[in-house]
Amino acid sequence: MKPTLFYDSELVSVSVTGNDAQLTIRYQGQEMTLQGEISNATNCRKRLEEQADGTPLIGLARLIQRKSSGVSRTKIGYRFDPYIDQTLRRAFDLDVYEFSRETHNSNSIGWRNAKYPEGFLAPKGLIPGQNGRFVSSSTQDVPVAVPLEFFELCSRMRSDPETVLKGFIADACSLASTSELPRADANMNHGTEAKRKARDYLRQAWRLKKDFFG
To answer: Which of 17, 69, 142, 147 has its CA 20 to 30 A from that of 166?
Structure first.
């Protein structure tokens, strides 16, 4: 079975022709070509060209499966995410998998970098940022009875209640998950205007003081 995750792979070259993209990577000493995503491949090619010394980018190549619009078939391709910290490497010997409760598997995987050669743990699915930094998850599950009307509203927006509510929370709290400082909960705001309007709602509906957000 072909791997779907290529940690610490080297991006050697990128080819984009029309609607076709090819990523050439070097993984564990072997060079291989993967079918890539157009937008990601275009960005990677630019990043590669910006490498002053011509060295390859180190990062994670991973398989992405998405439903093609208007078509029932699944579109398969690889994307490459360069490590912000180019000294970052996976430390498989530090991986920890703990079953904490019936509905949640708390997985931590190991990493090493120049700052922490002895290694450290980070949540599975997250690539640590600059100097291995990231924001740990501090979320709590809150049961909410969602009325049908809100389901219908979200459906008209081609979304779902969980996504919409998480988006509002991220806007109201100005949460941001970036490559330099990724969040384990992956919460990301929708930009300056969305943050302003979310806060305006809280001030209007809940009489939140204007200077609360600083």
So the answer is: 69
